[in-house]
Amino acid sequence: MNFDYLNERVSAEKIWENFETICGFGGRVCGTEGEKQAVDFLKHELGSISGGRRLLKKTQYKRWQGDASIEMAGGARIKSEALLFSPTTPDDGLAATLMDIGEGKEEDFLAIGRNKIEGKIVLVRHGYMFSPGHVHRMRKYKY
């Protein structure tokens, strides 16, 4: 099967190959190394399909700047990923109680109660997106 894309014929196999290549870069959250690799790959790939026409446009967005980590009371530091679209904390960090809510399912949040969560930093797991029971991050934000 072939598809028309920018007046070029592109095979389903080529599209799947490109999809697998992009997935191979790992997570592609804006500003990460995986996102940079995927953009570079797409610039090359789309450039060859479009006859060199520029198809990418820079977009401004709010995002975390810098590294994120959790420093425990005893001094141990755990590398972490900042919540997407979250503002950068002050240079000296942010101190708050950390609350682990496991998978971040609605029932996990309801069991604890909103009044016990407010003002705390909530830690939730991010599992494989295509597994049964996966909770999308937008649902976790909502909860």
Secondary structure class reads: alpha+beta
Overall geometry comes to elongated
Radius of gyration: 20 Å
Number of strands: 6
Question: Segments where pLDDT lies below 50 for 5+ residues?
Answer: none
Helix-strand topology string? EEHHEEEHHEH
Strand content bin: 15-25%
Can you tell me the number of structural domains? 2
In helices, the fraction of residues equals 25-40%
* Oligomer type: single chain
Looking across the biggest beta sheet, what order are the strands in? 1-2
Main beta-sheet annotation = 2 strands, antiparallel
Distance between the termini: 42 Å
Number of helices: 5
Average predicted confidence as pLDDT = 80
How would you describe this protein?
Helix 1 runs antiparallel to helix 2. The protein has 143 residues and is of the alpha+beta class. 32% of the residues lie in helices and 15% in strands. A hairpin with a 5-residue loop joins strand 3 and strand 4 (77-80). The longest helix has 17 residues, at 33-49. The chain folds into two domains: 2-49, no CATH class; 69-142, no CATH class. It has five helices and six strands, in the order ββααβββααβα. The protein has helices at 12-23, 33-49, 106-112, 114-117, 137-142, and strands spanning 2-5, 8-11, 68-71, 77-80, 98-100, 121-123. The strands form three sheets. The chain has a two-stranded antiparallel ribbon.
